[in-house]
Amino acid sequence: LKGCIQTQYHIGNLDGVNGYFSKKLLYLIYKKNINFFLEVHKLRKLNLGGVYGLEMFNVLANSFITFNIHGDSVGDFAGNMRLFEATGVGTCLLTDWKSDLSLIFDPDNEVVTYKSVSEAKSKLTELKNNPSLRNKIAIAGQNRTLKDHSYEKRVIEFKDLILN
């Protein structure tokens, strides 16, 4: 259907024994949060599998919205690669809120943030129903990434850090 957003899931570590989701699912079973477990388990049927390299960038570039969640190990800090991969190719990024995210992007102007599952669902619906807002955020995020978050910039910052 023209103008319809098709939902696709490319989750690379959904089924791995040591994967993030497998550990989370075991934790949910342990905590007896069976409803959330069942919702996440539904993703297994819809998951098209992980994509990597150029195929991953192609999937991201052709996405209207990319959903991101940081792993548990980062705590309250942002900075996984998906922030830069998704925004760099020009997709609208919906990511979990982190305390320092505003140092990297302007939240809700260059990326969209959420603090809860219900807020993520609400913002996802808003983005799906508002293509002009979604495109405006995607373009702003891409401009910010290309301007401030390139490898060239990071090498210069690292060089300055080492030499000073």
Task: Describe this protein's structure.
With 164 residues, this protein is mainly α. Helices cover 52% and strands 7% of the residues. It has seven helices and three strands, in the order H-H-H-E-H-E-E-H-H-H. A three-stranded parallel beta sheet has the order 1-2-3, sandwiched between helices. Strand 1, helix 4 and strand 2 form a beta-alpha-beta unit. It is globular. It starts with 19 loop residues before the first helix and ends with a helix. The mean pLDDT is 83.
Please outline what is shown here.
This protein has 164 residues and is mainly alpha-helical.
Question: How far is the first residue's CA from the last residue's CA?
Answer: 57 Å
Helix share bin: 40-55%
Order of SSEs: HHHEHEEHHH
Please tell me what the overall shape is.
globular
Sheet with the most strands? 3 strands, parallel
Structural class: mainly alpha
- Biggest sheet strand order reads 1-2-3
Mean pLDDT: 83
What is the number of helices? 7
Multimeric organization:
single chain
Radius of gyration: 17 Å
Proportion of residues in β-strands: 5-15%
Would you identify the regions where 5 or more consecutive residues have pLDDT less than 50?
none
- Total strands: 3
